[in-house]
């Protein structure tokens, strides 16, 4: 037998599949683990995909001109003027992030906590993740002072650290780094000669427009790569479409060319019919904007309702401002959880909730945090209904919390948290 | 500036894009470079994709149960009984091949010549390709005796060689290794404890059923991974759907699990609407079988016609038996090409043909062969028409060589080869 290279299945996808198996076996489950957004495809996007079903050419590796132009417009409307020639499309932002690590080379700084795949991708790319904690309540952006120290230490130890990943807004915490923190991160990256990979896939899921964070591309335009996709804002995870915006200038141009070369060797192009529909989505006609806004309102309403239930039993939680993620800390319940349930860490807590109550959450340990913490991630994306009709109803409901299937889930969650805290 | 990691754009995709730019600029071009099959999507498949446009869930990393079951049936009908639980779907067989290299680890033996991406993928995966020549007229399968020597040498030098890639039938040569060679390769792999990655994407494009090569999975079932996809047999390159069949037993199960883990971190899943249509294609209902047979007949007719033109000017060519690729050797014209055109190697020959005549071919050097050879690869997939109507006409024509657009291309090719050889 060969020695097994070390790689584990994405924790979010694994949790999702495990819960689906229990549901298929007839068990009552409540899925708060998956990052999937259970909402219907906007009919206009379905139609665009169907109309493009005859497209079977590979097309340009970087994506069709229509899609790259549409994505450039999307960023321009958000204050980032963009050359379509510096846009690269891929089959999801996940493969783009991986290909960027290969294109840039060297080790990568990842925030702690952060999305499950950054560190795993770094290892697959032959690099080592350099973990740097975030500031309290400002997930997704490594503390700039700690970043300086960590990179100095890594370089002193002979490690070739070349980039830093940030998530704005953040997964798993659902929080948003302050503009000053983003600016300081960008300044530190410039000083340390690091490329910034800014994962902005949740950009459109900030509840109050005043809270929208600036991109590091505003402060360090020459070295910031921005990525986004359609999985979260338009619930098109299964369509696999993402885009990256490379910086102007020699560093950006070189990174762009290597990214396209890597893409040509790993995936050739994103599915052509999907590219056609994605181009329409990034053009943001009114129906797309409305659909996105309806999803955002639904996330906000349900995430606030779930957050209230966490705080009602004594868990600590930052204010709910973006995404459909909550990252409660059960530290105040530590003594009780240990005594009543033999639970001493995040993995024990999520295992108990899954096995005794059929409630799927992800442990903070999956996001790179110390195992002893009692933080877990809850995602509301699967609470909106099981059927297309329920999900469509949730999107248009004046008060989604009064819909029976959402109310039942929340009541069940109340019961489970109550039993846990008693 | 960072040091640039070494990676170059896929030669086939680069040649294709370069020629497209010349065509868009109004130049007369004849594209024999791309591996893309310029044929229309079967209407039934378009309909299946359109009907699945509402599918937006990620679904299982390994692909939907329907697609895995259909792919298992596809292989069973070809003599390889297959457990759907050992099938993994990806966004093309290209990403599956790359993920397999990461899942297996170590260095990989690649045939010389071989498809442009095997060696490039190995380097991106942090491995080194171990080049082993094929036997004359039997492309795609490393000479088993030479394989033994090369692996022994590599291991003596401390290299951890773990797998060997074969292509059956072959790209770039269009040839088919003899069954005895496949058997000897499988035996050598077992003796050397190598995993065999058998790229069988051209399996359905063998012109005479009696010529269909056995898979190495017949001879070394415990260690052979088979990959295929829909890009070549059904001209669905731009849809991005491939499948891998992992072996039964502990080695296969371990490789399967690591492959799924890698897939979960790099791409999540293939596009869900594409998976739905791909499941239908792999079920092989009569309309799919007929469409595939029509494409195969067209490849055979046009490839034979192009082959005749190469031999007419004195290039050497193995018999035309499979795929839409020809791999002529201009060695007999070496003296003339040097004297009349200053051409001394395959790169010089393809540059001359592209720049003076607008004819796109790929040099043997792109496939890992020594640069001084005068071998080039010609692909007929782009000769079938520019429009959907022309391509549909080519598929159904009793004698496609009499269709004006194909006849004109062949006449132009005659002129160009004549000018080259004069």
TrEMBL record, chains A, B:
> What are the entry keywords?
Aminotransferase, Pyridoxal phosphate, Transferase
Q: Which domain of life is it from?
A: Bacteria
Question: One GO biological process from the UniProt record?
Answer: amino acid metabolic process
Gene3D superfamilies assigned: Aspartate Aminotransferase, domain 1, Type I PLP-dependent aspartate aminotransferase-like (Major domain)
Q: Which family does it belong to?
A: Belongs to the class-I pyridoxal-phosphate-dependent aminotransferase family.
**Which PANTHER family does the UniProt entry name for this protein?**
ASPARTATE AMINOTRANSFERASE (PTHR46383)
The record's SUPFAM superfamilies line, in alphabetical order, gives: PLP-dependent transferases
Q: Print the organism lineage.
A: Bacteria, Bacillati, Actinomycetota, Actinomycetes, Kitasatosporales
What is the protein's species of origin? Streptomyces pini
Q: Sorted alphabetically, which CDD domains does this protein's record hold?
A: AAT_like
Q: Which cofactor does it need?
A: pyridoxal 5'-phosphate
EC? 2.6.1.-
What is the protein named? Aminotransferase
Keyword Transferase carried by entry = yes
Start and end residues of each Aminotransferase class I/classII large domain? 29-380
Q: Does the keyword Ribosomal protein apply?
A: no
GO MF: pyridoxal phosphate binding; transaminase activity
């Amino acid at each position: 037998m060969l020695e097994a290279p070390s790689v584990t299945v994405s924790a979010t996808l694994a949790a999702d599949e495990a819960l689906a198996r229990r549901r298929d076996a007839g068990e009552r489950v409540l899925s708060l683990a998956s990052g999937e957004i259970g909402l219907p495809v906007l009919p206009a996007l379905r139609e665009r995909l169907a109309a493009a079903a005859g497209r079977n050419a590979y097309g340009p590796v970087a994506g069709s001109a229509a899609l790259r132009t549409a994505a450039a417009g999307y960023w321009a409307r958000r204050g980032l003027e963009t050359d379509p020639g510096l846009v690269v499309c891929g089959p999801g932002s996940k493969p783009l992030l991986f290909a960027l690590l290969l294109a840039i080379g060297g080790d990568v700084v990842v925030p702690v906590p952060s999305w499950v795949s950054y560190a795993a991708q770094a290892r697959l790319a032959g690099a080592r993740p350099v973990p740097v904690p975030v500031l309290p309540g400002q997930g997704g952006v490594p503390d700039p002072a700690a970043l300086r120290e960590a990179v100095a230490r890594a370089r002193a130890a002979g490690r070739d650290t070349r980039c830093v990943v940030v998530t704005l807004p953040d997964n798993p915490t659902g929080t948003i780094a302050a503009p000053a923190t983003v600016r300081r991160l960008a300044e530190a990256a410039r000083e340390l000669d690091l490329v910034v990979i800014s994962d902005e896939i949740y950009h459109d899921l900030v509840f109050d427009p005043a809270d929208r964070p600036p991109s590091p591309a505003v402060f360090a335009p020459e070295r910031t790569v921005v990525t986004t996709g359609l999985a979260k804002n338009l619930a098109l995870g299964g369509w696999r479409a993402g885009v990256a915006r490379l910086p102007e200038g020699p560093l950006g141009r070189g990174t762009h060319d290597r990214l396209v070369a890597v893409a040509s060797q790993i995936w050739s192009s994103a599915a052509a019919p999907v590219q056609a529909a994605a181009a329409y989505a990034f053009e943001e006609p009114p129906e797309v904007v409305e659909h996105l806004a309806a999803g955002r309102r639904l996330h906000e309403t349900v995430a606030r309702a779930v957050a209230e239930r966490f705080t009602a039993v004594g868990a600590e939680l930052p204010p709910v401002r973006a995404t459909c993620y909550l990252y409660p800390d059960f530290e105040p319940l530590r003594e009780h959880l240990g005594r009543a349930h033999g639970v001493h860490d995040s993995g024990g807590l999520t295992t108990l909730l899954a096995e005794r109550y059929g409630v799927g959450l992800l442990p903070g340990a999956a996001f790179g945090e110390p195992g002893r913490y009692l933080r877990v991630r809850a995602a509301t994306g699967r609470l909106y209904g099981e059927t297309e009709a329920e999900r469509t109803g949730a999107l248009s409901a004046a008060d989604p919390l009064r819909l029976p299937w959402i109310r039942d889930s929340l009541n069940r969650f109340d019961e489970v948290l109550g039993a846990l805290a008693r």
